[in-house]
């Protein structure tokens, strides 16, 4: 029963479940019925569920059938009414079709008009859109057109600004158009084109600057010369109305150039045309000659393009190359001053441009770069000047060169360049200038000395006297008292030489001007140069005249007189130098003039030449001597040649009256000594191997004539018998042989008061041997009468004995 109850309970639960599933199938969407059906198949009551489902289907069919039966009459009625309406609808359709046809026919024109209106509206809309787009594009096109115009007129910096606006402001607004893309693609090309064109302008500028550097430098040096002349006029007063623009004014060109760039100024690339100025008109400023706008434009263009460093390196490299070209002097520069001037003008022009660039640009060139260039230029310029100035032999050219170098240095110093080395080099050139002056004055002195007549200057009037005294400082009270005509003691070369020395001093002074030397340095330079003139140039000229072969005693005497007066004038030369340098001689380290020494040396050389000349004349007379050394006859008078020689000496010493006393006395003593020595040599010469006592007597007469000349006092001032001492050796030798006083000689030899103190044993032996030979030769010839020659034999024995004793004296003396 329980089992039956349980089965009944399960059956009820299954029935309830099936009912639920059926309701779910009826209420659920067909797409979602899958899970529900699956639950049926998963259960065990599939057959029962199918039965339930069939039962439910049959119930629904019966309900549908009941509903259809209920509404069938209404459906029939509806169909009937619908059939009635169909006829009416067909009529209405025909009417609508007819109406539509009529409407289509009537509205066809309207449709066409509407289509036209539509197209017009569309075109209007398109036009409006196009206008809007064109309004956006027009500024771009205008800017591009402006850019092309600026490029065409070479206004490159504004063109670069326009390009920047076009790229960053206008093109982004219309970047989707193809022409904009073309423009964008062309922008780098345009920048490169601007760079290239700007660089081309810069190259033209650099080339123009290179060609016209001499013009720029010439202008700058003219300004410096004008300023120096003005300074000389106003002395130490401040500058008034400087001819040159101040750097501050000149450098404002840079600012105005970039703010107000005109096509005309942009087409200029370098040197502006400037008409030649008259000397009395204002010289244009060096910067006024140059248009620097190509440099500024190119610098700004490269700066904007981010290539400033490239531009700076290129500019400096090119200018260094130009500097090397400028600093290369022409090979013939030393020939003319214009060669040096052009060389300096180019250097000055180069550095004027660089100085202007330094102060008007920010960093294109810097002070270190300028200093490096200047150091190179200074070293090369100094080397070139040293080389080429060494070829100059004209002191006027050297002086002009010095003035040009000073102007060159002063000009560059205005621009801040150190020029001390140039002034140091001028001191080297000063030495060369002195050498060229010395060479020039050597020729002047040579011409003066060659053209001089070596005769006292005659004057016939007071004017002539004052003229000579004005040329040469000479005072002689006795000469002033003498009536005209009268003569100065010196010849014309004295005032001429004196004035030429002063001219030389003036020439030295000219070189020292503008060298920024102190008065002491100038004085020292002049004195040293003058000393060289006196001790070397003038001294050599005088020595050359004195040493000439054809110089006469009269000329030598006049040279001694002239040099004496020139020596006295040295103190006036000292005063002259003191007056022009304002340095007192008492100043410490002041160089003294060596003129006194120079003229003394020349006078001594002339004196020596007089002595030599006299001796040569004596030798010429002695060459006429023709002694017969084997003669036994005596003429009882001096030889003719000796009489003529004595007459010549008397006339010669008569000319020596104007010479200083010691000079005349020395000349006379020298002549007598030379005459005595020459006579002794005649007596002792080796060619004369035999000598007779008779010939010795004749020779003694000639010596007595010489002693008589010495006693007559041909030159005043000698003490008694002083001049005769020149012949004392001959006199004692001849007395020894003529008196045959050998016993006295041999007995007293070596004693200070002996009678024949001046007789040398060697000389006596030589002469004795010549007499001995003659006697032996005579004995051999007269051998047949030997019994009658006992005295000669005795004398020969005596001679042999004396000779032996003399040899003993000689031997003991040498030991």
Automatic annotation (TrEMBL):
Component of the exocyst complex involved in the docking of exocytic vesicles with fusion sites on the plasma membrane. One of its GO terms (biological process) is vesicle tethering involved in exocytosis. Keywords: Coiled coil, Exocytosis, Transport. Residues 82-109 form a coiled coil. This is Exocyst complex component. GO terms for cellular component: exocyst; plasma membrane. Residues 421-770 form the Exocyst complex subunit EXOC6/Sec15 C-terminal domain. Transmembrane segments: none annotated. It holds the Pfam family Sec15_C. Residues 52-221 form the Exocyst complex component EXOC6/Sec15 N-terminal domain. The gene is Exoc6b. Belongs to the SEC15 family. Signal peptide: none annotated. Residues 258-280 are annotated as: Disordered.
């Amino acid at each position: 029963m329980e089992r039956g109850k349980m089965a009944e309970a399960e059956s009820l639960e299954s029935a309830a479940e099936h009912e639920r599933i059926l309701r779910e199938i009826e209420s659920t969407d067909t797409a979602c019925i899958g899970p529900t059906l699956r639950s049926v198949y998963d259960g065990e009551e599939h057959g029962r569920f199918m039965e339930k489902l069939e039962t439910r289907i049959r119930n629904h069919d019966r309900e549908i059938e009941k509903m259809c039966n209920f509404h069938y009459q209404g459906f029939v009625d509806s169909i009937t009414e619908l059939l009635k309406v169909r006829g009416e609808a067909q009529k209405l359709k025909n009417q609508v079709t007819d109406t539509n046809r009529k409407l289509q026919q009537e509205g066809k024109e309207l449709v066409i008009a509407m289509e036209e209106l539509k197209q017009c509206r569309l075109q209007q809309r398109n036009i409006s859109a196009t206008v809007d787009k064109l309004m956006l594009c027009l500024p771009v096109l205008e800017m591009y057109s402006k850019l092309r115009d600026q490029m065409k007129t070479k206004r490159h910096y504004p063109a670069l600004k326009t390009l920047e606006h076009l790229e960053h402001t206008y093109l982004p607004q219309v970047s989707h158009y193809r022409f904009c893309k073309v423009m964008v693609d062309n922008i780098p090309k345009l920048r490169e084109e601007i760079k290239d064109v700007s660089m081309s302008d810069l190259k033209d500028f650099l080339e123009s600057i290179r060609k016209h550097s001499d013009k720029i430098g010439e202008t700058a040096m003219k300004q410096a010369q004008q300023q120096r002349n003005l300074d000389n006029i106003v002395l130490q007063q401040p500058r008034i109305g400087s001819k040159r623009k101040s750097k501050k004014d000149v450098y404002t060109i840079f600012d105005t150039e970039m703010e107000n760039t005109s096509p005309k100024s942009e087409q200029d690339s370098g040197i502006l045309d400037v008409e030649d100025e008259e000397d009395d008109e204002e010289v244009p400023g060096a910067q006024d000659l140059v248009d620097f706008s190509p440099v500024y434009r190119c610098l700004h263009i490269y700066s904007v393009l981010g290539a400033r460093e490239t531009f700076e390196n290129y500019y400096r490299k090119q200018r260094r190359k130009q500097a090397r070209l400028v600093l290369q002097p022409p090979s013939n520069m030393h020939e003319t001053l214009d060669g040096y001037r052009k060389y300096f003008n180019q250097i000055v022009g180069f550095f004027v441009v660089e100085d202007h660039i330094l102060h008007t640009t920010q960093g294109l060139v810097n002070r270190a770069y300028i200093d490096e260039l200047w150091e190179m230029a200074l070293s090369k310029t100094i080397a070139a000047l040293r080389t080429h100035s060494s070829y100059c032999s004209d002191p006027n050219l050297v002086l002009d060169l010095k003035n040009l170098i000073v102007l060159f240095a002063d000009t560059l110093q205005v621009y801040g360049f150190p020029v001390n080395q140039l002034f140091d080099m001028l001191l080297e050139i000063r030495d060369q200038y002195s050498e060229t002056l010395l060479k020039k004055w050597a020729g002047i002195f040579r011409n003066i000395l060659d053209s001089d007549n070596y005769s006292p200057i005659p004057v016939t009037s007071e004017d002539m006297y004052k003229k000579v005294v004005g040329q040469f400082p000479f005072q002689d009270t006795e000469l002033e008292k003498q009536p005209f005509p009268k003569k100065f003691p010196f010849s014309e070369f004295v005032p001429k030489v004196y004035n030429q020395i002063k001219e030389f001093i003036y020439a030295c002074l000219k070189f020292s001007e503008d060298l920024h030397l102190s008065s002491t340095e100038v004085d020292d330079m002049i004195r040293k140069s003058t000393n060289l003139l006196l001790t070397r140039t003038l001294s050599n000229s005088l020595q050359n005249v004195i040493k000439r072969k054809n110089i006469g005693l009269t000329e030598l005497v006049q040279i001694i007189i002239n040099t004496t007066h020139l020596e006295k004038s040295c103190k006036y030369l000292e005063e002259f130098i003191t007056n022009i340098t304002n340095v007192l001689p008492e100043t410490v380290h002041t160089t003294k003039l060596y003129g006194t020494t120079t003229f003394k040396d020349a006078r001594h050389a002339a004196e020596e030449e007089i002595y030599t000349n006299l001796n040569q004349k004596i030798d010429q007379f002695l060459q006429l001597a023709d002694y017969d050394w084997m003669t036994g006859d005596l003429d009882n008078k001096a030889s003719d040649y000796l009489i003529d020689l004595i007459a010549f000496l008397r006339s010669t010493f008569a000319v020596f009256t104007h010479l200083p006393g010691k000079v005349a006395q020395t000349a006379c003593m020298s002549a007598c000594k030379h005459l005595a020595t020459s006579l002794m040599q005649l007596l002792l010469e080796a060619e004369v191997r035999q000598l007779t006592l008779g010939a010795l007597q004749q020779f003694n007469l000639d010596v007595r004539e010489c002693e008589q000349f010495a006693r007559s006092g041909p030159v005043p001032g000698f003490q008694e018998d002083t001049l005769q001492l020149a012949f004392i050796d001959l006199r004692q030798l001849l007395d020894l042989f003529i008196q045959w006083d050998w016993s006295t000689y041999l007995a007293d030899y070596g004693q200070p008061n002996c009678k024949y103190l001046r007789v040398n044993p060697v000389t006596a032996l030589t002469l004795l041997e010549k007499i001995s030979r003659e006697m032996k030769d005579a004995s051999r010839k007269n051998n047949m009468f030997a019994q009658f020659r006992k005295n000669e034999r005795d004398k020969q024995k005596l001679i042999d004995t004396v000779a032996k004793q003399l040899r003993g004296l000689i031997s003991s003396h040498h030991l």
